[in-house]
Predict the structure.
Amino acid sequence: MRPTELDSNRELPAAELSAAQLAWIREQQAALWRYLLLLGARPEEAEDVMQDAFVALLRRYPGEDRSAQARLLRTIARNRFVELRRRRGGKLVGWSDAVDAWLADRPEALQNTMAEQFEDCLGELTERARVALMLRHAEDQPVEDIARHVGLARGGALTLLQRSRDQLRACLERRGFNHRGRARSSAHGSPETSPALETRS
Amino acid sequence: MNSHRFRPDDAVADRHVELLLQETLAGSSAPDVTARVAAAFARGDGPADVERLSASGRGPRRGFGLLAALLGLVVVLGVGYASRSQPESSEPEGARPGMPQGPAQERPLGPEVTVTTMAEIAALPADTDNVRLRLHTADAVRALTRLRKLRRLDAAFELEVTFSSRRAKRPDFFPAAAEPLGMLTSLEELDLSGHGPIKGLGSLETLARLRRLRIYYALMEPRSLGVLSKLPRLEHLHLEATLSTDADAPLLDLDHPEYGLATFAGSGRLRTLTLTACIADLEGMQAVATNPLEELRIYGLSAAQPHPRRQSLGAEAYVPLGGIRTLRHFSFQDTCSPELFAGLLQCEHLETLNLGSADGLQGREAGRAIARLTQVKSVTVAGSSIDHEALIGLTESKTIVDLALGGDVECTDSILARVAKMPALRRLTLPLSHSITDAGMAVLAATKLEHFALPHPEKITSAGLRHLPRSLTSLIGEAGPFDASVLDRLDNLTEAEFFFHYDRPLSLVPDLLTASTRTSLRKLTLAVDLRRLQALERLAELEGVELLDASKSLGELPADAVRRLRERSVEVRLPSAREPAPIEVMEVKAAGPGRRKK
């Protein structure tokens, strides 16, 4: 195997991670996982990239306060993933930019609290909507089968799924999460470059 | 009317809901990777990306950096768009034990072809791979797109100033030329130095082979930097003296989350990074430190340089740079904290260490620590806090070839005596030497010095300088103490540069020029205030003198001096539109015996 950039780090003595470092990994991994899936990573890719990113960061900064390093971790992970896709002939640059721009105004989107709130929002849906979403996302059923289960035509099932998602977004927004609306802050954005500022008519 | 445009935000929002549904309904939660990370960490595993970590290139070059930098000459002389004639010192020298190496050796380029007209571009053979473009129009760039093998394009803008036109107006190159630049998909090297507001760099995103990008002395929209981290093979990035187009915040904002240095985190590809005036915070520096940098040059930020986020910077922001174990060349002109200094001492591949304000360099052990770096060959230290003990420790080095003591380092005769005994020393720059005397200079006679620089020899006279060894081929100093009698002894001298401080009479010029024709000198640079140029009338009396370049203060040049110089067809150039240096320079080349005009 050819030596790698971080092979040069092998000159550093191998060490075990401290309890604090392990705790930090546990604290960060769910958000990082969501971020990579948002970028379009498959679960197995996301797992590999997560490992790489954590190792890269911890090797460089083994003993430092991690409170400010979540964003650095995410950037490392993104670059690793973009490079992974690039080597396979894919292009993700534009999409990753869009994801980052969207997250810049919604830092809470990757947090566990968001998942908890989303679960509450699911509880506000009708039983039929929950079943349709369950069949679609948990069991990966085709729309035709979902339609049959919920007693609707195919078009009706599609409409139900779409409306259910819209209701979930509306629920999140009622709870203070600016899911799809105008970005709250555009400190680094501009009208020309921030699609979030476009409005539907 | 409904909009059918694709809206990235909506798409990301949709994707986000999908993920939440997957996680909530299908239970696809994040795996616990702590065990994997811990195991990989203990094994010393690194990331899998191995393809871009090539180490190849041409050898480093060292210029007469310190003194020139001190007086701002680097701006005028060094800028000269080294792409034309001078490879970067940043280029790695090839394989080093323990250094990352890659498979891709750089293919040699063909000879550089300079084109200045559309006709010349049209006449270029289709397989031309190395072009120096001095016609800055979008059409010119578009015409180059037929060169499918074009690998290097030097499109730097050199501002030519003539006495008649005073200053050439910079052509409107960007953003019109940006789009065709993106069509030069074979490019590996691109130089856009010297241009005015650079916009539309997003088109460079298609340059998937670009390895080296130089944007010196230009003005950029900071957002243009966003494209840089997306260039998949970019290894060498030079942004020295490039400022923002925002006049209210002229420093490049490199701690910006969307386009700043943090976007390079983990990309694992940057090997060279040079910055002059920028804003970069701890996170940006941490991101930089995740790259296998071999050369890093960061020049200082003056507290007077305004920027809304200036206050976010502190010496601690730079501490992560000391953790880049791959560093071979490090130049840092801001305050070097003890923590950064301690980190650098762990960089065992370090060959060049340039610390502009080395606060951590105190005590003999600190100097010895540098001396113990086994690869170190070039050391520049400056800072009034450096003490004698540290300098004594430094002189214990067996490997330092090039030693430069910055302006405010206090150097005495006894220190100089130790310096003279450094076995490998060939290049020496002394500080503003208030303490060195003619007697102290005697120790240099026994050295094998090839380069010597003495910017302000307060107590040193021509008598002391006559102790300089005959081995010298390069010299920088102040006219006055350096006179014809000094030059006459140095018969191996090929390059010399003399400053004329305001109290130095220009009547010394002819003497120096005359003396230069008696040596093997091929290049003589005189740093003079051009407002005193009328005194150069006497130059015309000398044979074999060809005035090549001069610069600055032309607006204040007396009309009769302009007339006289024009009569002699003097060519005047400014290498850059930016004029940060308060010193005026002209370069006079003394023709050798074989080139003497009759």
The radius of gyration of chain A is 21 Å. Residues 1-14, 182-201 of chain A have pLDDT under 50 and may be disordered.
